[in-house]
Structure formats: structure tokens, C-alpha cells
Design brief:
about 25% helix; Deoxyribonuclease I, Chain A; single chain; 8 helices; alpha+beta; globular
Length: about 260
């Protein structure tokens, strides 16, 4: 049996988190795949120091807008193919998706849009979610497993944030966003963490306001979701709230595949 470890982290600026010990964390994490969101770096600024980490090759999708969005994957194993974006211009221009294909699974690293404080981007968010679900279904229809990791910018249920009552009308906990997540998880996909951790108090994002993280007033908006058949191969899943450097914490998933 082969053990495979996936780690995902919204770093909220790669250059910023690099100055806070990211390289040491990456080495100690020793994951087979490390997916990053919100790298906030343009392709011409991705130096060799960022690209070439011992034991990894890296793949990048930057936004056209400087200092915005962006995703990256550090992988120990050579993929069969790499897809940058979904093939949809108004999504791909924001640098939100990388898909790495392997013989038994496809890893998708996604940074889902935020609906915005004024909710002006909710239609865009819904559009992205719809297209992402279609993309995942297309892969499954070909007989391949899917690992969809990243910052979904959605707290699925009340247990997934500290103060659900006061956030009913706020981005990330809107009925429309939660309904999409419910539908996504009622079909082919599974949230392995919640299946194995039914207790409250597990979060992946905290406001930078003083004392908020220390009091664990957070949201769980970062996920590894897998198709139902692949869930049987999950041996570990969890969060790393002790890892600092971003307003999000890393999350991990381990599989055993024959």
C-alpha cells in the first residue's frame, strides 16, 4: 500500500509567509503534495528560490491582476498532465485552479472566490462553483478519483463557524453558498474531515483582529473533498492550527492506495 499525504494552505501572500519560516515548514511537513492558495505573486516574480524546493517540482497559476489570488502546487511525483485553469477566461484570469492528473486520481487545487462584503461577487462565486462541480464530474465520469482541496470560502454548516447566528447574511455563510456545498456533498463527494470529526471548534480561518485566533473564534472554510469511493482510502485528515504565518492554517489528508 502506498501512503500519500496532501497538504493545503491559503498562505495569504507567498512572499509574506516565506519570511515567516515557510521553507522550514515545507521541509518538515514532508507531504507528497502541498497546494497553496492566495499566493499573490505574478509569474515573472516567481524566483528559483520559490520554484525549486528539494524533492519537489512546482506548478503555478497566477492572476492577471498583480498581488491578487493565485495558486501553486508543490509535487514530489511527476504528473501525467497539468491543467492550468478551467478553460474559462473570466475564471482563469483570476488564477484560481490547478489540476494535476495521476494514474489513479486527479488533484485539483482551487481558490474559490469570496462573495464580498457587499455580496456583489455572489453571482461570480455561484458561477465558479457550478463550473467546478462540472469539472469534477467530468473527471469522475472517466473513472478517475478526485481530490479537491483548497479554500472554498464556504462554511458549510453551523458547526463550521463559531458564531453562525450573527453571520447568516455574511459572505461565506450565505444560504446560496451553503446550498451549493450541500448539493456537491450529496452527490459524488464527501467531506472526510467532518465525517470523522463531528465535534465543534475545528476551524481553519481566523480574523487578524487581536485575540480572535487565541480565543478560537473562527471559520472552517478550507477543505479536502474526495469522491465517495476514495473516502474509503482515507487514513488521516486534520488541521494544523498551531502553524502560524497566515490567517488560515494548513490542512492535511492522507490516503493509502494500492
Amino acid at each position: 500500500m502506498n501512503r500519500i499525504k496532501f497538504t493545503s494552505w491559503n498562505v495569504n501572500g507567498l512572499r509574506s509567509v516565506w519570511q515567516k519560516g515557510f521553507a522550514n515548514w515545507l521541509e518538515s511537513e514532508d507531504a507528497d503534495f502541498v497546494a497553496l492558495q492566495e499566493t499573490k505573486i505574478q509569474e515573472d516574480l516567481i524566483t528559483e528560490e520559490f520554484k525549486n524546493r528539494k524533492g519537489y517540482q512546482s506548478f503555478w497559476h497566477s492572476a492577471k491582476r498583480p498581488g491578487y489570488s493565485g495558486v501553486a502546487v508543490f509535487a514530489k511525483k511527476e504528473p501525467l498532465s497539468v491543467q492550468i485553469g478551467l478553460g474559462i477566461d473570466d475564471i482563469d484570469s483570476e488564477g484560481r485552479v490547478l489540476a494535476l492528473e495521476y494514474p489513479k486520481f486527479t488533484l485539483i487545487n482551487a481558490y474559490f472566490p469570496n462573495s464580498g462584503r457587499d455580496l456583489s461577487r455572489l453571482p461570480y462565486k455561484q458561477y465558479f462553483c457550478k463550473e467546478m462541480a462540472k469539472f469534477c464530474q467530468k473527471i469522475i465520469s472517466k473513472g478517475k478519483h478526485v481530490v479537491l482541496c483548497g479554500d472554498y470560502n464556504i462554511a458549510h454548516e453551523e458547526i463550521d463557524l463559531r458564531n453562525p447566528k450573527s453571520n447568516q447574511k455574511n459572505a461565506g455563510f450565505l444560504p446560496e453558498e451553503r446550498e451549493w456545498m450541500k448539493g456537491f456533498l450529496s452527490k459524488e463527494f464527501v467531506d472526510p474531515f467532518r465525517r470523522r470529526n463531528p465535534d465543534p471548534g475545528h476551524y481553519t480561518w481566523w480574523s487578524y483582529r487581536p485575540g480572535v485566533r487565541a480565543k478560537n473564534v473562527g471559520w472552517r472554510i478550507d477543505y479536502h473533498c474526495v469522491n465517495q469511493e476514495l473516502d474509503e482510502a482515507v487514513t488521516a485528515v486534520g488541521h494544523q492550527p498551531q502553524v502560524m504565518g497566515s490567517d488560515h492554517c494548513p490542512i492535511y489528508l492522507e490516503l493509502k492506495l494500492s
